[in-house]
Every structure is written in C-alpha cells, then in structure tokens.
Amino acid sequence: MKVTVMKWRIFLILGLMGCFVLFWKNEIWAATRTIVNTTGDGNQTVEINEGEMVEQSSDRDDGTSNLVSQDSSGPRLETGSVDPVFGETGEYTFHTYFSDPENREPEYVKIYIIETGPIEEVENIKPYLMEKKGERSQGIEYVYSKNISKEGQYQFFFEAKVGNTVLHNPYYGGQDCQPGLCPDCCGAWGGPKVLSENLISNHKVYLFDKNEKTAVWSYDVGENWVTDVDFSADGLKLAAVDNQGVLYVFDVSSNEPIWIFRAEFDRANGNVSGDRGLVDFSKDGLLTASLKGQVFLFDIKSSEPIWSHNIGMTLRGLNISDDGEYINAGGHDTKIYLWKTDSSIPLWEYQAKSEGGILGLEGSVIRAMAMSSDGKYFTAGTSCPDRSVYMFRPESSEPVYKIKAGENFPVENMAISNDGQYVIAVGGGGADDPYSAVLLETNKREVVWRFDYSQNPSISTAISDDGQSIAIGYILGGMYLVKKDSKNPVWQLKNPGYVADMVFAKDGESLVLGTGTYHVILVASDGSSILQDWKVGNKIETVAMSDNGQYVAAGTGLDRFMSIGGAKDRNTSGAGVGPLEDLGPELVKVAAGSKLESGFNPKTQVEIKNYFWAWVLGGVFLGVGAGGVVLLIKKGKIRMKSWRWRDLKRKT
Fold first, then answer.
1. Phi and psi (nearest 5°) for 465?
2. Which residue has the higher pLDDT, 435 or 41?
C-alpha cells in the first residue's frame, strides 16, 4: 500500500515538473518580451527585445595584458579619422584620441592599415607606432602619416596599451574581439576607409520634369558629391547639399543658385572632414541643413542662418516637421537631439547607449532618422552593437519604445508613414538575421512582419504617406514593392544597380528611385509601367519629388563602393570591383502568392539551441509521470471514480 502511494506521488511530482519546465520554456521562448516602465512624467516606455543576444566575454592572456571593454570608468580609445578621406595616391594622416580617468599616458598607440583583401591576411600585418600630437576635447591626439602609392581601398584600426590593459578600436562584441579577426563581430574592421583612387569629377544636381525625356537643367558641383536634395512645399524651390558643407538653393526655373552657403568647421572641436550633408524643408518656408557636423536653420529667403548648433561629428539623420516647430537630428556621436525652432539649444538629448560602441563611445551610431509630417512621432535606427529602432514623441526624451532589429541587424535606413503609425527599417541581411526589412506598428508597439530576401542587405527604403505601400532597395537585386498587410512582394525592379535612394509621390501613385548604374527612374506604384528612365553621367546618391509630382531632383556622388581592380563577374552594383555594367532596369510582376521569406525566426532558432535540453527534460518528466499514472490505473491501483488525494490514501 505504501509503495503504491509512493509511486503515485513520484509520478505526480514528475508530471508536475515536466509541466513546469515546459511552461517555463514557453515563457522565455516568447518572441517578444515587453517591459513597461512608467517614467516620472507619467509616460510609459516600452522596450521590446527581438532575439535578445547575450554577449560572451573572455580575457586573452598573453603574459602581459588583457583586452577589456571600453566603458566610461576606464581608459578609452576613439576610432578617429583620416585626412583626406578620399583622393588620389599620396600622403594620408590618421588621427585617434586616447583618454583615461586616471590621467595615465599609454605605453604606446599603434595603427594597423591594410588594403581590403582576404581576412587571413589581417593576422600578418604589422602595426605602425603613432605620434603624440597634443590635447584635444576628445583626449590626447595621436597621429600617423603614410604615403599610399597604390590605388585601392584601405581600412584601419587602432591599438593602445595602458598598464596591463590593451584597447582596440573599432571595438565590437566580446573583450577579445580584435578588429579583423572576429568573424562574429558586426563588421570585420568597421570604421572609416581610405579610398585612394582617381576621382570622377563633375558631380551634379539634376532637375527633371515628369513629362520630359531629358533633364530640365543640371548644376555642376565639381569634385564634391551631392548627398541630399529636397523641394519646398510649393515645389518652386530646390535645396541641395554636398559632402563638403555647401548648401545650394535654387528656383526650379533656373540652374543658377538663388544663394549658396558654405559651412566652416573647427577641427579642434570635432572630427568631420568628408561629411554627409542633409537638408529638409518645412511647409512654412523654413529650411534645416546639417553641414560639417553642425545643424543650421534658415529662412528660405536668406543665406544668413537663423541659428546653428555644433554637434562636432557627422550627422546621419535630420528632419523638420511640416509646421516648422521641431527639428531632430542624430549621428556619429550616438545621440538623438530635438530642437524647437525658436532656439538653438536642444529641447532634449537622448543617447543610444550600448557597450562596445563603434567610436569608443558608450553608445551606437545613429544611422537613420524619420519624422511624421505633423512632428508627433519620430524614429531613429542604430548600427552595431545596439541594432535597434527607437520611437519618440517630442514631449519626452524617453523613447515610446525600443525594438531590437535583430541579432546582427544594423539599421541602414528607415521611413515613417504620414501619421507615424508605421515604420519600415532596413539593413541586416546576415546569417544571424536572414531578413532585410522590419515593419513596425506604433500603436501596437510590435513587429508586423520581416521581409526576407536571400540575406542580401537593404540600403534604402520608402513608405507611402498612407503607409500602404513600401519600397525596399538593395545593394544587389534591385528593388521590391510590398504591401503593409502582406510581406509578399507585388513587383520587382531588376538590374538597376544598387538602389541609393527612393521616395513616393504624395498621392502614392508613383515612386522615384536613383541607382548605381546612373539611372533616375519614375515608376507607377502599381507596377504597371516605368514612367520615365533618365540616364545621367554618374552614380545617383539622392533623389526627391515635389509634392505635386511635377518635378524630380537627383544628385550624383561617390559615397559608396569606390574600390577598383579586375572583376571576375559582372558588376552592376558598384559594390564590387571592376568596370560598372548596366544591364538595363526591368520591371517584373511577382506572381500572386509567391514568397521570398524563409520563415526563419531568429528568436526561435536561438532558443532551440540554447534550451534544447530544457525541452528534452520537460518532455521526459511529463512522459514518465503520465505513463506512470496510466500504468497504475490499468493495474487498478487508482480508480477514476476516486481520484482525490485523500481517497487514494484511504484506499491504500
């Protein structure tokens, strides 16, 4: 009798343990974990971690030193820069900055320089000792000058030793993640690149009329390249900026600028040489621009700025609300800024904090930003190691939500619907996250879908004002148009070369895009036809369309893919080497029901790997427990009419 009771108890306990393990596993396996924090101002912050990754760290013991994380309490080494950023063969000067809370000087600061090539070559390169230059706001400046006599593409990283600590920068991932030797890091070397080759001159701003086969006019900016263009709300003015801090304002009737503004920059206060300028109009005649690491506000009528604010580093995102009330910006200093236009002092700042930031800072670079037309919502996307999408409202510096884009999904570009309810973020495309776009819904604060295209990273995107149509552009593979309610593509534009920039018409009926094979293409949004295909003289860097859809603007540049040499295969994107080949853009309808996505869920894959034995153990416990109960029932030890615990004890 006692033995039967003991068996019953054992089997019951085993079954309960199995249920508990499986329940626990199911809870931690949920694809989305939501944490709601109520801030002091009554706002709720929601953080949603998609596929949250736990980074491992380890010490490398070579008898002398340990590689350590760069945090605010220890010594730091900044990625730095090179002057010039690009050019012909000749002398290049590299800069980095060292700082230490204990005011120690490093035993050495070195630089590794390598021409882009096979990863195994990295282990064989020899570093160069850098020279101490002097004190700067970022720390002690170290420099090294080298004559580069061979044309090609070069990358570099820095190393410093202080005490028993060795620092590397760019810094990613675990503590022993030396740049170039860590395939699991986000970007093998990261950081700036030296692009040493003959420049293509005569970069231009182009204006097109949707009804004309050739450009209405063009304006030559010389060896600078055009990085952004935008139309005024009435479609009568066009603004353009270049990578050397020059702002041009035109009337669409003439290619002679109404006025030109050239930004000055004090190198001692920051680190911007070849900046990516940005420009944006409000509907009431205000114009904001980022030039040489500074944010400017203008009245369209005057080249004299209303105000300016010096960030000191390259900006990657800049927007002004339609009513001209708010401006936001973000970039390489890892911060997101918001201004009210009546003051040059930011209303607030927010840092995208993350250990192992790309610039030796305690954060991640802001790669892209977007704002709803009414200014009520704006969003920012970060690169490694944070790899997240943030949503903000002007009232608070605390994000409405933060959603992890993926395990290794640096956000490259993003767009927001007119009402701020849908955000498309693109990038990724790696083995950890074999998808290239993520659609988010603001009200539900969740991922709607992920779009998978052969692990090919996306670099550009656009969303129609109503949020119904979404365009996703690639380095390779052209462009896909998808609908909000289904991630399956509707049509594809093949063979355009890399898709540098895209924008929908205000009415959503057409889409313009600029390509790496020198095309500016106007396409009907329903995929029925290519409305115009304008061919120009260089790679397109940026495009814009007037609100009435009458005019299209484009700017050419070399902001991407400047390597040279012999090509094994056809190069239609500019992403490889060798001469660029134009296969001709082609519009292709995608059959109804066709799917490109693989159905891969990174959270599912990670959790199965990490918790496989939890599933096995839970299943065994549950199986043994249930089997034991069935056996006792069959032997008559338990009668179904008297299954209560006290009845079982009484009968046994």
1. -55, -35
2. 435
Dihedral of the alpha carbons of 66, 69, 70, 75, in degrees to the nearest 10: -30
SS3 of residue 512 by DSSP: strand
Where residue 232 falls among pLDDT bands split at 50, 70, 90? Answer: very high
CA distance 393 to 233: 24
Query: What pLDDT, in 10s, does the model give residues 556-612?
Result: 987 554 443 334 445 555 544 456 678 889 999 886 545 544 333 333 333 333 444
Q: Are 475 and 567 in contact (CB under 8 A)?
A: no
* Largest separation between any pair of C-alpha atoms in the chain: 103
CA angle (561 as vertex; 559, 566 as ends), nearest 5: 150
Chain centroid offset of residue 572 CA: 24
Residues above pLDDT 70, as percent of the chain: 65
Q: For residue 616, give the 3-state DSSP assignment.
A: helix
Q: Which of 88, 351, 49, 43 is nearest to 198 (CA)?
A: 88
Three-class SS of 15-77: HHHHHHHHHHHHHHCCCEEEEEEECCCCCEEEEEEECCCCCCCCCCCCCCCEECCCCCCCCEE
Dist. CA 504–CA 500, nearest whole Å: 14
Q: Is 642's pLDDT higher than 80?
A: no
Who's near 22: CB < 8 A, 6+ residues apart? 615, 618, 619, 622
